[in-house]
Each structure stands twice: as C-alpha cells, then as structure tokens.
TrEMBL record:
Belongs to the dicarboxylate/amino acid:cation symporter (DAACS) (TC 2.A.23) family. This is Amino acid transporter. GO terms for cellular component: plasma membrane. It comes from the Eukaryota. It is a multi-pass membrane protein. It comes from Apatococcus fuscideae.
Amino acid sequence: MILFTTSYHAQGIIHLFYLPHANMTPSQAHMQSHPVAMDCATKLGCSDSIVRFVLPLGTTVNMNGTALYEATTVIFIAQAHGVKLGLAETLVVACTSTLAAVGAAAIPSAGLVTMLMVLQAVSLDRFAADLAVVLAVDWLLDRCRTAVNLMGDTFGTFIIDRLCRKSTVL
C-alpha cells in the first residue's frame, strides 16, 4: 500500500527508520521510540502537523503486532489442548484480540495481561497456566511485535501525509 500511495518504497523507509528501530530493540518499548520516529518522519519530508497527529494516534491505537500475537497464541494454546475452534470462535478471537491490543498499554509484555481476556472470551481460561510456556519466549516475541507496531505507525504516517498532500488544493 505504501508503494501505491507514496513516492517511497517500503525498503527505503525501513532503511531510513533504522534509528527508531535501533532505539526500540534494547528497550522493547514502543512508546520510547516515538520521539525518534517523529524526528525521522519530519526529516524525511512529512508535514509536521501530520506527524504530530498521526504518529501519537498510531502509537496508541495501531497495535497490529500485539493483536496478531494474541490471536496466534490463543489459537496455539487451543490446538495444543486439542480444542477445535470453529468459525464463530475464530472470529471472536480475532475481534477480542484486536480490541484487547488497542486497550493494551505501549509497554513491554502488556499483551500477556490482555491475553487472559481473549482466552476467557472463547472459554479457554482454564488453560491460562499455559501462558507460562509463552512467557519463556515472550522476550523475543515482544521485540518482534514492537517492530511490527512501529513499522505500522511509520507507514501509516507516510501514507496519510501523501494522501493529505494530494487532496490539498493550493
């Protein structure tokens, strides 16, 4: 989508946003990389007003990595116990994990807390102890979902900036 709406290629933006990603990796905090990402977006030519509006909104609401992580983990736990989720349960997992991700704080491992809500939505809360297994690899998964969240925020900022420039009459 970024290729069709902007003059940038996704690889170029990822390369130019190396600094926010490098800042994010040791801290695992999506919110901590926010000021660095704002500075990079402004330096790359995005409108300052768009950056100051879209990037903070994306940091709060656009938690794609967390939503994918929660849905995948709940389905993994269900399959590990031989529980078959039908279409209705899968849709409940998708919707609940999306809402839980939006409600999660932008701090490390916040998705583990809201995952209990997703497990309970499909009556799998009896398997909540299995989150201890997930906790063993969560430090790595947390870095991955934080990177996905940060990329989504920055791509969204560039797309909104270019769409606003195309629709603005000078």
